[in-house]
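User: Please fill in residues for this 96-position structure.
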């Protein structure tokens, strides 16, 4: 199963939302909120998430709402802009 991330319908709920806990809860024979909490707890202590995720919250029946750290957003935007600029220069759109 692949976890899917979506933008929450309500921006106040965070930057990304995931319902994977509700998808796997039946197979695990556990309450979806318990599964979501276990995932959230694992994300909070995962070194790979350090500096990337600002906060993780559980909502409703087991949604996982994530807030991406401002520095991570800025880094992503910088990389995207740099790639676009390089494509533009490679295509001959740069100064001659």
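Assistant: Residues filled in for all 96 positions:
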């Amino acid at each position: 199963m692949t976890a899917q991330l979506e933008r929450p319908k309500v921006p106040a709920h965070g930057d990304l939302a995931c319902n994977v806990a509700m998808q796997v809860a039946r197979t695990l024979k556990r309450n979806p909120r318990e599964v979501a909490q276990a995932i959230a707890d694992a994300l909070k202590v995962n070194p790979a998430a350090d500096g990337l995720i600002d906060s993780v919250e559980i909502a409703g029946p087991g949604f996982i709402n994530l807030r991406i750290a401002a520095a991570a957003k800025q880094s992503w935007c910088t990389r995207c802009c740099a790639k676009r600029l390089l494509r533009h220069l490679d295509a001959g759109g740069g100064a001659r």
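For context: The domain at 5-69 is CATH 3.30.1360.70 (Gyrase A; domain 2).
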